[in-house]
Each structure stands twice: as C-alpha cells, then as structure tokens.
C-alpha cells in the first residue's frame, strides 16, 4: 500500500528525481559515469559550503559515512563526542569500536549543548578530534556546530559532524566554519531514495591522511578511496561498484538545488517549521524542544500527556495512509511523535494539512475540543 511519507527520512522525492532513479541501469565505470560521479561530488561539496573536491559517494546508508569517519579518523586517537540524543549515542558507539581513548560530554536527551561545559572539557585534555550530531532526529534538536567548530579550532582539534538530517535543510558552511568532515546521506534533505552515504572531507585532512594510524577495515578506510581517486581517476575513481541509479537521482537533486538556490531551500524549511509549530500549538500540543533550538526538517510533537503517541501514529497510518515517526527513546515513546518535512514534497501545504487534519480528527475522536479550522489556517 502506498503511504504518504511524512517521516524524518526516507522522504517523498520529486518526480524528476524518481524519473532519474527509474532509468535504465548504467555501468559504474567508464568516462561517461566517471564524469557524472565527479561532477556530483563537486556539487555536493558546494551545497555544504566547501570548495574541496574530496566528497565521496559511498554505497550504504549515512552510517556508512559515519563508520568511515570512525575507522579512518578516530582510530587509536583521542576523541571527544558531544552527545545529547540517540544519534550522539551512535557516534560514541562507533568511535569506541576504533579507539580506547574516547570521552564524551554527555547532556540529557534533548538538552541544549552548553558551550562552556564543552570548553571546560577541552581545557582538561588534548583531543585530536571532536565529533557531534548537527540535527538529532530522535528529538528534533538543532545543535550549534558553528560554535563547537570554533572551539575545536581554538584547541587545535579536528571537527567532524553528522549532518545526515541537516544537509540541504540547515545552514552549513564547511570552509568558513572550519569543519573538517561532514557525513550525510541521500534520503533526507537531498530527497533521493536511500542507498548512499555521503562524506565530504577538507583538503587539509586529505593531505595528512597517510600519517594516521592504519585502519583495521578496508571498505571504510578512506585512504583506499583516496588511492582509487588518484590511481584510477580516468575511469573508476572509487574502489567498489556504485549504485548508479541512486547517483543519477542525487545528481538530479543537486541540479535542482543549484537551479533554485540553496538559500531558498533553507528559507522554505524555516517557514514550514514555523507554520507547523503554530498549528500544533493551536491544537493544544507543544514541541518537545524549545523553539529556538528546533531543527527545521522535522517537528517532534509533545502530546503533553493528552493521548498516547503510538496510538496516533497507528491511527494516521491506518485511517489516512500517512506515515509519521514515533519516538526513539523509551522514556518519550508515549508522549512524542515526529513529523518530517525534509523534502520539498513533504513541505507542500496539502501534505502538511493532511497531517494536521488527521491529528485534529484523532483528538476529536478522543473527546477533545480542538480548533481544527484555525490550526489548518495557520498552514496556509
């Protein structure tokens, strides 16, 4: 059955992207595809605010790119993880697979990152790198990577971020902010089918990558990818077979982004986020995260105990053929559900109205008087 995907990824894709994805499969090598691959990596770097040529399109999920950071840059080094959510836990889990010298600055789930606390930890110990999540979709929080990147520079650390849920949604200026590595994926802000982990690394790190401790893996060892880029650049500048259809879809998505302008896309997400928050509050609910820390590609709604969140998630799926996300943290499962608006299609007014209408109908079925017309008007 076809559901309207209003989850925080994978997302509803534009028709042009689906058309590119559905085309005949082509070979993953040879000049034609090699040129498409390299052009796509350059466009990816540009969207992330970098002039680096070192973007890699890796078969797998966004966690493939995260694993590559862990295997290549965390390996046997002093690492500091900034953690305030489910996906911060994942960074810590990955990093500790590759190094026994990993610390974390741990905040409560959904708590804002206190920069003074981070700096106090940096004063205590010399770290090789800092790693944090930009947007943690488990709670919908937007973390201050610009400010933490500045601290990393002050204390002579490399800085990496998981931007899987923020790329093409939130402002990211890799070169200007001094970010050394960004991991992301194809199926959220880039509005493509899942299947690609995307990794962009600064020129500075590529120049010194051979001096790092040798990783214990092959696939997630970025030096392997760099070697193929140099040695097989004229026809096969990557070490493995690539999902050519997904890369064609990504190429089309980046072309659309470039044509419409990344600033316009970011403005769209901010506008939709603001409208949806207002609509939810008119129904007597709230957001889980304070408004000034809310990510703009999803909204984590707090039911305030008025109804069981998983029950609504099931209701909207069965009665309206719409899929939204439940909570990932056990402590929040009964009171939090998540609405995704990461792609342009998800941001369409009719789709947002469908979700809020279903929410209003559900609340009325539970004998709650709600101003549904007002909530819908807030989206128009």
The Rg value, from CA coordinates, equals 21 Å
> What overall geometry do the principal axes of the alpha carbons give?
globular
Q: Largest sheet, described in full?
A: 7 strands, mixed
Briefly note the CATH topology name of the largest domain.
Aspartate Aminotransferase, domain 2
Strand order of the largest sheet: 2-10-9-8-5-3-4
CATH architectural name of the largest domain:
3-Layer(aba) Sandwich
Number of helices: 14
Overall strand count? 15
Query: For the residues shown, what is the average pLDDT?
Result: 97
What does this structure look like?
There is one protein chain. It is built from 14 helices and 15 strands. By secondary structure, it is an alpha/beta fold. It folds into two domains: 246 residues, 3-Layer(aba) Sandwich (Aspartate Aminotransferase, domain 2), CATH 3.40.640; 116 residues, Aspartate Aminotransferase, domain 1 (Alpha-Beta Complex). The model has no long low-confidence stretch (mean pLDDT 97). The strands form four sheets. Strands 2-10-9-8-5-3-4 form a seven-stranded mixed beta sheet, with helices on both faces. A four-stranded antiparallel beta sheet has the order 11-12-15-14. Strands 1-13 form a two-stranded parallel sheet.
């Amino acid at each position: 059955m076809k559901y309207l995907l209003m989850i925080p990824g994978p997302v509803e894709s534009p028709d042009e992207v689906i058309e590119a994805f559905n085309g005949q499969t082509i070979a993953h090598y040879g000049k034609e595809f090699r040129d498409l691959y390299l052009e796509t990596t350059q466009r990816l770097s540009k969207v992330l605010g970098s002039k680096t040529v070192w973007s890699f399109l890796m078969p797998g999920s966004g966690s493939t790119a995260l694993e590559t950071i862990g295997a290549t840059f965390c390996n046997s080094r002093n690492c500091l993880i900034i953690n305030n959510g489910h996906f911060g836990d994942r960074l810590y889990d990955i990093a500790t697979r590759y190094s026994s010298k990993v610390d974390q600055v741990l905040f409560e789930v959904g708590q804002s990152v206190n920069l003074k606390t981070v700096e106090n930890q940096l004063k205590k110990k010399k770290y090789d790198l800092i790693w944090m999540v930009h947007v943690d979709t488990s709670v919908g929080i937007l973390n201050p990577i610009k400010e933490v990147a500045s601290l990393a520079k002050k204390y002579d650390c490399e800085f990496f971020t998981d931007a899987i849920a923020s790329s093409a949604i939130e402002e990211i200026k890799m070169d200007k902010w001094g970010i050394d590595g960004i991991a992301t994926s194809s199926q959220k802000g880039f509005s493509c089918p899942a299947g690609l982990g995307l990794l962009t690394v600064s020129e500075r790190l590529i120049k010194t990558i051979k001096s790092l401790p040798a990783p214990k893996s092959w696939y997630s060892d970025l030096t392997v990818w760099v070697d193929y880029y140099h040695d097989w650049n004229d026809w096969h500048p990557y070490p493995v077979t690539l999902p050519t259809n997904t890369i064609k879809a990504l190429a089309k998505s980046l072309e659309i982004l470039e044509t419409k302008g990344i600033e316009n896309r970011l403005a769209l997400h901010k506008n939709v986020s603001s409208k949806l928050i207002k609509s939810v509050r008119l129904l007597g609910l709230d957001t889980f995260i304070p408004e000034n820390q809310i990510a703009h590609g999803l909204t984590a709604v707090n039911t305030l105990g008025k109804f069981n969140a998983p029950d609504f998630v099931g209701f909207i799926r069965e009665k309206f053929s719409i899929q939204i996300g439940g909570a990932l943290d056990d402590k929040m499962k009964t009171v939090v559900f998540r609405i995704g608006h990461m792609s342009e299609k998800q941001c369409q007014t009719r789709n947002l109205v469908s979700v809020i209408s279903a929410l209003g109908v559900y609340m009325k079925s539970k004998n709650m008087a709600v101003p549904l017309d007002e909530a819908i008007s807030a989206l128009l």
